[in-house]
Amino acid sequence: MREYKPKTKNVIATTVIKTPLGNMLAASTKKGICLLSFYSEEEKQLQKDLDKLKKFFDAEIIPAHNKYFECLQKELDEYFDKKRKEFTIPLQLVGTPFQQSVWKILQKIPYGETISYKEEAQLLKNPKATRAVANANGKNPIAIIIPCHRVIASGKKLGGYSSGVDKKVTLLKLEDSYRFDIKE
């Protein structure tokens, strides 16, 4: 069997990660996970995200084994079994400096807690950026691990979730942060 020779020097490996909420596509560079997304076969946004990674890293995207995938599957299994509250898997974030700063705030929201988009903007020291923060949350490329599901709208309303509000509700219930006062 011939060895695979990439056309470019960089490769982004992909695999399917199985979760109780459905399959997720994971992508990783040599430095860490750069994408973790729920998907369906006809989803156009996922292809846009992959194209963005391909261009950013000047890389080919191929289904392949990567040293991070086994750890990712293990940590997600532990999370869904309520045995893990924090992730240790290395990440390689791809986004604007503003988006990356928003995603770093998201990673500081403790398991089992929620904050509003307004509170997130205040934590970013930019209280007028509520809409921009919400938009950056929607572009989060690494679901669950960067927990944008922990951000709710003002007035205790759920707000949106790019993977579907049903998944957001399930994740919040899993973390015991879905309270009777959160309105759908």
From TrEMBL:
Substrates-to-products reaction catalysed: a 6-O-methyl-2'-deoxyguanosine in DNA + L-cysteinyl-[protein] = S-methyl-L-cysteinyl-[protein] + a 2'-deoxyguanosine in DNA; a 4-O-methyl-thymidine in DNA + L-cysteinyl-[protein] = a thymidine in DNA + S-methyl-L-cysteinyl-[protein]
Keyword flag Transmembrane: no
An MF annotation (GO) of this entry: methylated-DNA-[protein]-cysteine S-methyltransferase activity
Catalytic EC class: transferase
Catalytic center residues: C148
E.C. number: 2.1.1.63
Location relative to the cell: Cytoplasm
A Pfam entry, by short name: DNA_binding_1
Domain named Methylated-DNA-[protein]-cysteine S-methyltransferase DNA binding: residues: 97-176
GO-annotated cellular components: cytoplasm
Key words of the record: Cytoplasm, DNA damage, DNA repair, Methyltransferase, Transferase
One BP annotation, GO: methylation
Residue stretches making up the Methylguanine DNA methyltransferase ribonuclease-like domain: 14-93
Tagged with keyword Cell membrane: no
InterPro entries cross-referenced by the UniProt entry: MethylDNA_cys_MeTrfase_AS, MethylDNA_cys_MeTrfase_DNA-bd, MethylDNA_cys_MeTrfase_DNAb, MethylG_MeTrfase_N, MGMT, MGMT_N_sf, WH-like_DNA-bd_sf
Family: Belongs to the MGMT family.
HAMAP family, sorted: OGT
Function: Involved in the cellular defense against the biological effects of O6-methylguanine (O6-MeG) and O4-methylthymine (O4-MeT) in DNA. Repairs the methylated nucleobase in DNA by stoichiometrically transferring the methyl group to a cysteine residue in the enzyme. This is a suicide reaction: the enzyme is irreversibly inactivated.
Note: This enzyme catalyzes only one turnover and therefore is not strictly catalytic. According to one definition, an enzyme is a biocatalyst that acts repeatedly and over many reaction cycles.
Full protein name: Methylated-DNA--protein-cysteine methyltransferase
Organism encoding this protein: Halarcobacter ebronensis
